[in-house]
């Protein structure tokens, strides 16, 4: 079975800006390659958490292409790229904290241990 | 935030649900701050492990948006990057059963094996060696049972080997494998998986090669059997249930959800003892006498996860692996976005230079 990615996939950048973005990037659509709803929806939610963001939405343009489009529009001509970078940092915090709390609760060993047949 | 907060509830009605979308974004409610705040998130987040066995793990994740919980669920199902071992190549010497070769081979591929992946190397298109391949033999022939009673109709008694089970897989150690796997011979984790049915005269003779792989290539290599979540049920008795109707009311819910208590000199009272157990059948809404007496819903940010593991990884480890995959995704994108940001800055600066040159 072929497991390697098509040669073109590695040549394209992970993220790029779709044409027709405003020159100051206050409104832009980003293409993120080799990502799905998994990252798209979580990232959309985190971008929307930013009060400087007027609009954020994402889509999977075609189900058999592993690309997502994420559209960000900002208030006051601010840069959507800055908002995207902030959202990525904040999203990483979310999962870091979930990891910490999970480990913390696991170590308390307050759970019910039960036996289950395979 | 209490559980009764209407913003935290997805309402369940007789034939529809309402209030499905979350509203915790800046701009939804005037004068309220819903912008991202790590400290507030830390304060509200609760992770609690409820039940743990060798095969499954049930835990609560409270205080996150559906998009976060769903990201974890999706990664667990298809993107966890830890390898497992599964049957990949099947050499059929003889198969006269009614199950055709390719269907039987596919079934064999899905049988979970107890092999520790750390003991094998990836084959990666190379030759099969004792370092990367585990060999099983499957050789079963069906015959009549000479001791069966006359007029017997049960196939189990009438025939020998009428069922082929995963326990019929026989490990064939190659090279040094007998020493490496000493005391822990490779075998299916469950010996009772029915693979095919045979009748007298039919036989299966196959050689099976198991190799190490990743779930992204085929789900048979995924260490996760299932991963799912449900929202915590919410039940509120709005007005008291008449004592005569309590047994009927109780039977409208899953066992153990509604209990009855009696204070001295007072009437019996039905109360919600354990809403977690409720299956949300909405049976109460079918009876006129309970109309307006009870409200049903689900808590929007209270996720009850259930993760099952099949194979060598402990179920409690899988969430940690999933979080690792997600953070890796974020880190990769963060790096590229940063590069893009630098690139855009240069372009903007160049444009500015050109403009300045023109004036």
From TrEMBL, chain A:
<dbReference type="GO" id="GO:0005666">
    <property type="term" value="C:RNA polymerase III complex"/>
</dbReference>
<dbReference type="GO" id="GO:0006383">
    <property type="term" value="P:transcription by RNA polymerase III"/>
</dbReference>
<dbReference type="GO" id="GO:0055029">
    <property type="term" value="C:nuclear DNA-directed RNA polymerase complex"/>
</dbReference>
<dbReference type="InterPro" id="IPR033898">
    <property type="entry name" value="RNAP_AC19"/>
</dbReference>
<dbReference type="GO" id="GO:0006362">
    <property type="term" value="P:transcription elongation by RNA polymerase I"/>
</dbReference>
<dbReference type="Pfam" id="PF13656">
    <property type="entry name" value="RNA_pol_L_2"/>
</dbReference>
<keyword id="KW-0539">Nucleus</keyword>
<dbReference type="InterPro" id="IPR008193">
    <property type="entry name" value="RNA_pol_Rpb11_13-16kDa_CS"/>
</dbReference>
<dbReference type="GO" id="GO:0003677">
    <property type="term" value="F:DNA binding"/>
</dbReference>
<keyword id="KW-0804">Transcription</keyword>
<dbReference type="InterPro" id="IPR009025">
    <property type="entry name" value="RBP11-like_dimer"/>
</dbReference>
<dbReference type="GO" id="GO:0005736">
    <property type="term" value="C:RNA polymerase I complex"/>
</dbReference>
<dbReference type="InterPro" id="IPR036603">
    <property type="entry name" value="RBP11-like"/>
</dbReference>
<keyword id="KW-0240">DNA-directed RNA polymerase</keyword>
<protein>
    <recommendedName>
        <fullName>DNA-directed RNA polymerases I and III subunit RPAC2</fullName>
    </recommendedName>
</protein>
<dbReference type="InterPro" id="IPR022905">
    <property type="entry name" value="Rpo11-like"/>
</dbReference>
<feature type="domain" description="DNA-directed RNA polymerase RBP11-like dimerisation">
    <location>
        <begin position="27"/>
        <end position="100"/>
    </location>
</feature>
<comment type="similarity">
    <text>Belongs to the archaeal Rpo11/eukaryotic RPB11/RPC19 RNA polymerase subunit family.</text>
</comment>
<dbReference type="GO" id="GO:0046983">
    <property type="term" value="F:protein dimerization activity"/>
</dbReference>
<dbReference type="GO" id="GO:0003899">
    <property type="term" value="F:DNA-directed RNA polymerase activity"/>
</dbReference>
UniProtKB/TrEMBL annotation, chain B:
<keyword id="KW-0240">DNA-directed RNA polymerase</keyword>
<dbReference type="GO" id="GO:0005666">
    <property type="term" value="C:RNA polymerase III complex"/>
</dbReference>
<protein>
    <recommendedName>
        <fullName>DNA-directed RNA polymerases I and III subunit RPAC1</fullName>
    </recommendedName>
</protein>
<dbReference type="InterPro" id="IPR050518">
    <property type="entry name" value="Rpo3/RPB3_RNA_Pol_subunit"/>
</dbReference>
<dbReference type="InterPro" id="IPR011263">
    <property type="entry name" value="DNA-dir_RNA_pol_RpoA/D/Rpb3"/>
</dbReference>
<dbReference type="GO" id="GO:0005736">
    <property type="term" value="C:RNA polymerase I complex"/>
</dbReference>
<dbReference type="Pfam" id="PF01193">
    <property type="entry name" value="RNA_pol_L"/>
</dbReference>
<keyword id="KW-0539">Nucleus</keyword>
<dbReference type="InterPro" id="IPR022842">
    <property type="entry name" value="RNAP_Rpo3/Rpb3/RPAC1"/>
</dbReference>
<dbReference type="InterPro" id="IPR036643">
    <property type="entry name" value="RNApol_insert_sf"/>
</dbReference>
<dbReference type="InterPro" id="IPR036603">
    <property type="entry name" value="RBP11-like"/>
</dbReference>
<dbReference type="GO" id="GO:0046983">
    <property type="term" value="F:protein dimerization activity"/>
</dbReference>
<dbReference type="GO" id="GO:0003899">
    <property type="term" value="F:DNA-directed RNA polymerase activity"/>
</dbReference>
<dbReference type="GO" id="GO:0055029">
    <property type="term" value="C:nuclear DNA-directed RNA polymerase complex"/>
</dbReference>
<keyword id="KW-0804">Transcription</keyword>
<dbReference type="Pfam" id="PF01000">
    <property type="entry name" value="RNA_pol_A_bac"/>
</dbReference>
<comment type="similarity">
    <text>Belongs to the archaeal Rpo3/eukaryotic RPB3 RNA polymerase subunit family.</text>
</comment>
<dbReference type="InterPro" id="IPR011262">
    <property type="entry name" value="DNA-dir_RNA_pol_insert"/>
</dbReference>
<dbReference type="InterPro" id="IPR033901">
    <property type="entry name" value="RNAPI/III_AC40"/>
</dbReference>
<feature type="domain" description="DNA-directed RNA polymerase RpoA/D/Rpb3-type">
    <location>
        <begin position="56"/>
        <end position="336"/>
    </location>
</feature>
<dbReference type="GO" id="GO:0006351">
    <property type="term" value="P:DNA-templated transcription"/>
</dbReference>
């Amino acid at each position: 079975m072929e497991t390697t990615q098509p040669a073109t996939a590695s040549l394209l950048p992970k993220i790029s800006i779709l044409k027709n973005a405003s020159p100051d990037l206050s409104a832009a659509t980003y293409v993120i390659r080799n990502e799905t709803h998994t990252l798209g929806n979580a990232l959309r939610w985190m971008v929307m958490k930013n009060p400087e963001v007027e609009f954020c939405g994402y889509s999977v343009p075609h189900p058999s292409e592993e690309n997502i489009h994420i559209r960000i529009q900002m208030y006051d001509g601010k840069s959507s790229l800055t908002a995207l970078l902030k959202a990525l940092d904040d999203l990483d915090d979310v999962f870091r904290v979930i990891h910490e709390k999970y480990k913390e609760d696991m170590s308390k060993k307050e759970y019910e241990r039960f036996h289950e047949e395979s | 935030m209490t559980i009764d907060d209407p913003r935290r509830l997805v309402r369940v009605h007789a034939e529809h649900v309402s209030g499905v979308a979350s509203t915790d974004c800046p701009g939804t409610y005037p004068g309220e701050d819903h912008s991202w705040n790590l400290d507030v998130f830390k304060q509200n987040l609760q992770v609690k492990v409820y039940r743990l066995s060798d095969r499954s793990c049930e835990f609560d994740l409270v205080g996150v948006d559906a998009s976060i919980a769903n990201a974890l669920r999706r990664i667990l199902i298809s993107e966890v990057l830890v390898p497992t071992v599964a049957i990949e190549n099947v050499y059929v010497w003889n198969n006269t059963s009614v199950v055709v070769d390719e269907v039987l081979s596919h079934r064999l591929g899905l049988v979970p094996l107890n092999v520790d992946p750390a003991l094998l190397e990836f084959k990666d298109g190379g030759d099969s060696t004792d370092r990367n391949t585990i060999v099983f033999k499957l050789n079963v022939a069906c015959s009549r049972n000479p001791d069966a009673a006359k007029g017997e109709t049960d196939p189990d008694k009438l025939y020998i080997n009428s069922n082929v089970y995963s326990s019929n897989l026989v490990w064939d150690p190659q090279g040094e494998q007998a020493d490496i796997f000493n005391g822990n011979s490779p075998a299916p984790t469950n010996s009772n998986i029915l693979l095919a049915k045979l009748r007298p005269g039919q036989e299966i003779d196959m050689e099976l090669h198991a190799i190490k792989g990743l779930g992204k290539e085929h789900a048979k290599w995924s260490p996760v059997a299932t991963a799912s979540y449900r929202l915590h049920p919410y039940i509120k008795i709005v007005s008291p249930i008449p004592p005569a109707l309590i047994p009927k009311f109780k039977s409208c819910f899953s066992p153990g959800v509604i209990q009855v208590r009696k204070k001295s000199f007072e009437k019996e009272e039905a109360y919600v003892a354990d809403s977690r157990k409720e299956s949300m059948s909405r049976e109460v809404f079918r009876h006129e006498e309970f109309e307006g007496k009870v409200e049903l819903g689900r808590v929007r940010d209270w996720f009850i996860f259930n993760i099952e593991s099949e194979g060598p990884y402990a179920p409690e480890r899988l969430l940690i692996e999933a979080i690792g995959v997600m953070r890796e995704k974020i880190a990769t994108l963060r790096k590229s976005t940063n590069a893009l940001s630098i690139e855009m800055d240069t372009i903007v600066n160049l444009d500015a230079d050109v403009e300045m040159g023109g004036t």
